[in-house]
Amino acid sequence: MSHGKQFTLFSHKRGPNGWKVALVLEELGLTYESVYLDFQKSEQKAPEFIKYNPNGRIPALIDHSNSDFIVWESNAIIQYIVDKYDKGHKLSIAPGTDEYYIQLQWLYFQASGQGPYFGQAGWFTFYHPEKVPSAIERYKNEIKRVFGVLESVLSTREWLVDSRLTVADLSLVPWNHLTTPHLEDVDFEKEFPATAKWHNKLLKRPAVEKVWAERTRLLAQP
């Protein structure tokens, strides 16, 4: 790939997981070119992409400065980026410390607790060919449970780890931002005030604003 950027990021215009990686790249000032796969054409399942990610999902990242090393799974990508390119720990915690494992804890929580449940809520609410009220109810309750977990921590401190912004906070932004407008019978700012304050503060960061503006621009295209 001859675009001259350090990374190629395979992503999707709408899906949150690729945008998680873009947020970290932008915050660290790293250069990258995004390739947005068309799921309607099953490009994520095509042989030319499967060679990058055998799971047939986005995101996947190619690091051209590291012999075109490929890594997939969004939070594994995030951990790779900060381990190799955040030596000053602007967004990350030094390995071997207790706080490092707290950071990992939240990245795993995002991958296992937030993303799947929020995604299933979206699927059964908007895309499943038939309405399944019990499934919709289950996953909406899981959304509230996840917000409750965040609230229990953020009501006692400003950030999730070590009193400062880390990739743990950034990893949760896209799914939260896509989900909160669709919460029915939930007043996000009233019921989860500390989480809402934290979330809104993250949205105002210049890198987050830049990335989300690009997503908005892409989605507005015909």
Automatic annotation (TrEMBL):
The keyword Transferase applies. This is glutathione transferase. Belongs to the GST superfamily. Its EC number is 2.5.1.18. Keywords: Transferase. Residues 96-222 form the GST C-terminal domain. It holds the Pfam family GST_C. The keyword Acetylation does not apply. Involved in the oxidative stress response and detoxification. InterPro entries: Glutathione-S-Trfase_C-like, Glutathione-S-Trfase_C_sf, Glutathione_S-Trfase, Glutathione_S-Trfase_N, GST_C, Thioredoxin-like_sf. GO terms for cellular component: cytoplasm; nucleus. GO terms for molecular function: glutathione transferase activity. Residues 5-89 form the GST N-terminal domain. Transmembrane segments: none annotated. It catalyses: RX + glutathione = an S-substituted glutathione + a halide anion + H(+).
